[in-house]
Amino acid sequence: MIVCIAEKPSVARDIAHVIGANAAHDGYMEGNGYQVTWTFGHLCTLKEPDDYTPSWHRWALSLLPMLPPRFGIKLINDKGIEKQFGIIERLMQQAEGIINCGDAGQEGELIQRWVMQKAGAKCPVKRLWISSLTEEAIREGFKNLKDQSEYQSLYMAGLSRAVGDWILGINATRLYTLKYGQRQVLSIGRVQTPTLALIVNRQREIERFEPRQSWALITLYRDTKFTAVTLDEDADPDETKKSAYKQMEFADENEGRKLLEQIIGKPLIINKTTKKAGTEAPPRLYDLTSLQVDCNKKFAFSADTTLQLIQSLYEKKFTTYPRVDTTFLSDDIYAKCPATMNGLYKTTFAGVAPYAALVKPLGGKPLKKSKKVFDTSKVTDHHAIIPTGVPPKGLSDMEQKVFDLVARAFIAAFFPDCRFETTTVLGEVRADEAGPVVFRTTGKTIIDEGWRTVFKKQEDDFDDGATKEEETSLPVFTKGESGPHLPSLAEKWTQPPKPYTEATLLRAMETAGKLVENEELRDAMKENGIGRPSTRAAIIETLFKRNYIRKERRNLIATPTGIALIDIIHEELLKSPRLTGIWEKKLRDIEHNAYDAKTFIDELKQQITDIVAQVLQDNSNRHIAAEEPKEKKVKTGKKATNK
C-alpha cells in the first residue's frame, strides 16, 4: 500500500476521491492501492525544556541559557491527536511508500516530516506539490510526484525557524520575566518583539511630534484654485512638470501677507498650458500580504480573518494556494487562463453574474500577456493568488468579498492600461516689488478607463474612507488670457505620522519597518521582512492576546505593558526590525541552499548567550509593574509563544 498523508481531513477526502481511495475507515480512506490519512495541522512539536532535563522545569536565572545539544520532537499531549497518530504510525510501518500531501510550503513540509520521523517511517517518500485542490491539479500533481529529497532545504529552513524561535523565545522570555517581570510572564519572540517595537516607536513619534505652522498663497481664478509655486533651483526653467515646482510656503504670516497685498487687484495672466498623456498599468495580482492589506482597508477584516477566509476558499477549490509572497504568475499558467476566465464568466451570486460583462470583451481573442503579470523568474514555490476557474457556490458574505477582490484583480490583469491626460496651467501675477508671482494648477482627465472599469462598481458601492486620487477636469485656459482673481493666505499645519493599522503594519513588517511605496523596491526588500506572510497574522494576534497592543477603531495602540516591555529591552538584537529582517533573509537562504542551517543555529546560540550575560549584568533594579496576563503564570513552567 502507498500511504498518502494530508494536513487536514477535508483535503485528504479530496485527494482520496481523485485517486480512488473511497472506502472509509477510522482515521483514513482506502482503495486502488492507496491509504489516505491526515493530520490536524501540527501533531508534533519541539520538546519542552524539562523534556531534556528535569531541572529545566524550574524558572531560574542560573539555568540560562538553556541550549540542548540536540533538539527533539514529541507528540502534542491531546487524546484526539494521540489516537490519530497511532493510526498514522500503524499505516506507515506497513507502507511500501509514502506520499507527503501536506500544504506546499515551509510549514506544511515541517508538519509532515515531523510526523514521519515520529512514526519511524523507513520506506521511500514522494512529495505532492500543487497550487490548488481542483481535481485537475491533484491529478496533474500525482503524475509529477517529486522525490522528498528535492525539498530537503525547505524542511531545513522550517526546522531552523522552529529551533531558532525556541532558542530565542524560551530563553529570552524566562530571562526577562525573572529579571524584570514581577510575577508576570514577559513574552519575547524573534518576530513578535520587533513588531511590537514598530508600534511603540510609531506611537512615540506621534507623542513627540510638534506641529509646524505655515502659510500658502493661493488664488481662485475662473472657479479654479491656483497655488503660488517656486521653481526648484536644480530644475529646468522651461520645465512645467509638477515635480519641477514646489509650493511657496511662508513660516511667517506677515511675510506672506505682505506679498498678498502686492498682488491684490492685479490680474492673473495665463503663461503656459501643457498636456501630457500618461498610462497606468493594472494593479498587481494578490500575494497574501497585499490581500490582507486590502481586506483591512476595505472591509476592516483583521489579517488573521483574511487568512482564514482565503484558506477556506482554497480548500473549497475556488482559489489557489494562499500563503504566497509573489504577485506574479509563471509563464506556464498563461495557457490555463482562458479556462479560468470562462469559470468567472459562469460565476453567479444570488442569480447575478457579476463578472460576465467584464469577461465578455476579452473573449474571442488571445488574452494579453504582460511581463508585469507573467514572469517565471519571479515565482519560486507558488504563484500569485488567483481563481481556479471553479465557479464558487455556498460562500459566506465575507468569503464572497475576498473572492471578489481576487477575481477582479485577475480579470483586470488582462485589460488595457488606463489612459489619462494631465493638464498643467501656469500663470503669473506681476507684483509691485516682488516681481512676477507664479501660480500653478493641475488637472487629470481619464481618456480611457481601461482596467478601471473592472473596479468601478466595487468602488462606487464601498467607500473605505481612504484618500482617493481625484479626477479633476480643468476649464480650457488660453495662453495670454488674463482676468481678476481672489488671492488669499491658507493656513497649514504639518501632520504627525499616522498610527499603524493592521494594513500599514503588515506593509511595515514586509519591509522591516521602512516606508516603501515603490512596488519593485518593496519586492526586493521582502527577503528582509519580519516573519513570513503566513505567520504575520498570528504574530499580530499574539500581541493582542498578550495585552501588548489594543485596537482603537482601526488603529493599533501599544498598551502601557507593551511600551514598558520595549523600554526595558536594551538589547537591540531582540527588538530591531532590521536585525530580525537579516535573520529572515538567512532563513530564506537556507531554503534556497545558499546558507548553512547549522551556522544559523550556532549564531543564535551565541547571540542568546551574549544577551543573557548582558541582562544579568544589569544592576538597575528596573521592573515592569503591570497586571498579570491571564493566559500564563511563571510558576507553570510552560513556554510562552516562541515567535
Written account of the structure:
The chain has 643 residues and is α+β, with helices and mostly antiparallel strands. Strands 10, 11, 12, 13, 14, 15, 16, 17 and 18 form a nine-stranded antiparallel sheet that branches. Strand 7, helix 4 and strand 8 (125-127) form a beta-alpha-beta unit. Helix 9 (288-299) packs across helix 10 (303-315), helix 9 crosses helix 13 and helix 13 (397-412) packs antiparallel against helix 14. It starts with a strand and ends in a 27-residue tail after the last helix.
Task: Summarize the biggest pleated sheet.
Answer: 9 strands, antiparallel
**How many beta-strand runs?**
20
Distance between the termini: 39 Å
Low-confidence stretches: 237-242, 460-469, 628-641
Spatial shape: flat
What is Rg? 30 Å
Work out the strand percent: 15-25%
Helix content: 25-40%
Q: What is the helix tally?
A: 21
Structural class: alpha+beta
Mean of the pLDDT scores? 90
